[in-house]
Backbone:
């Protein structure tokens, strides 16, 4: 099931996305919320008549870096320790205020001159959980969506902490919806800028699997329904400029598109 969050006539609701193609999509409005038992109302509205919002409003976004070998190499990062073993997952946070939805503008931060796109598969948590054993990881996942871990690369290089470089307002586009019925182990991830392909990879290239990442972070903290885990980006990250349209497409989910604007 594809679950979208949307607004219409000043009201916000969740709906199950039905149909195919930009003109054939409709939303069957959900009674309740997708993090508990819910029913479809049977009341349907065309997607073209609503504004799609971020599919969830996370309490926190936990992001993992250097999880694709070629991307780590292009930034000059080692991915193995002194004994040749893969490094442990490398986590950081993006605040809830960084989250925007499909079609929302990415505001180019005034403190950066080198903004980069990073297309990623995002995991949406469906229930409160901590210390999740590997065999139970699937039980705590609601589904998957597209993400863009927009990064002020010059600031990331200059500052020891990544809070500003990756946590500024509008740096975490999510959407267009959550796909609940999906095998995430070998999906194509693509990023285009103004229609030109920049990134193309597969989730099977991850160094640490989704199970690895969920086990790792829930050893340390509780994840809440609606929290989001970003799983890393494949190689090909590159610059974004004011006026650019950046699109992240993931097989089996859809396309997340945002335009870069000058920050007011």
Residues:
């Amino acid at each position: 099931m594809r679950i979208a969050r949307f607004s219409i006539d000043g009201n916000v609701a969740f709906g199950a996305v039905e149909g195919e193609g930009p003109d054939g999509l409709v939303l069957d409005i959900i009674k309740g919320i997708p993090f508990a038992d819910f029913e479809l109302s049977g009341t349907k509205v065309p997607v073209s008549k609503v504004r799609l919002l971020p599919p969830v409003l996370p309490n926190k976004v936990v992001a993992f870096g250097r999880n694709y070998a070629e991307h780590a190499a292009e930034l000059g990062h080692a991915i193995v320790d002194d004994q040749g073993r893969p490094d442990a997952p490398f986590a950081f946070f993006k605040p809830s205020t960084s989250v925007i939805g499909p079609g929302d503008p990415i505001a180019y931060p005034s403190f950066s001159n080198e903004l980069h796109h990073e297309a990623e598969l995002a995991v949406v948590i469906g229930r409160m959980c901590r210390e999740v054993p590997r065999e139970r990881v699937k039980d705590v996942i609601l589904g998957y969506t597209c993400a863009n871990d927009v990064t002020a690369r010059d600031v990331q290089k200059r500052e020891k902490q990544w809070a500003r470089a990756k946590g500024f307002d509008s740096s975490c586009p999510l959407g267009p919806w959550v796909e609940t019925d999906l095998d995430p182990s070998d999906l194509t991830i693509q990023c285009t800028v103004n229609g030109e392909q920049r990134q193309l990879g597969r989730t099977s290239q991850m160094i640490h699997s989704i199970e690895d990442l969920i086990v790792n972070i829930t050893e340390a903290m509780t994840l809440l329904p609606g929290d989001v885990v970003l799983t890393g980006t494949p190689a090909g990250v590159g610059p974004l400029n004011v006026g650019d349209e950046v699109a992240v497409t993931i097989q089996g989910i859809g396309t997340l598109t945002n335009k870069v604007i000058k920050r007011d």
Notes: The chain is about 10% helix and 40% strand. Residues 61-262 form a domain with the Fumarylacetoacetate hydrolase; domain 2 fold (CATH 3.90.850.10). Helices lie at 69-74, 153-158, 163-167, 210-218. The first strand starts at residue 2 and ends at 8.
